[in-house]
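Quick one, T. Sequence first:
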Amino acid sequence: MSKIKREFFLNAFVISPIAVLICGYFAARISVSHSELLNTGDWFLPFIISFLVSYPSYLLISFINYVIGRKLKKLGKRLILFNALGVLVVFIGWLLFDEMIALIIFLTPFILFSIVSVIMNQTNN
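Structure tokens:
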């Protein structure tokens, strides 16, 4: 299996679920603490909703990273294009939601997937 495919599977099925679980937990806690309708212990439903919304977007971002990686072989060009796309997505998210947690949820996959790209590029296999 090629490096780019291994990177895609690592991003899609290991990094994304872990990142979405962590971001979803914090998003649910913040949502419950600012809600007058939910008790402090009722964070599970907002967590599930956050997970179900965020995970497909992380998968889409992972797939976009894979496609960019297939088209551009040079890591520098690939990271510049991918992170420029990340800046655009974060800016649009900031305009739409104007919430700090939304910015963190949008920014996290771009940072994590870039780190994974650099690490995978450094390995010999």
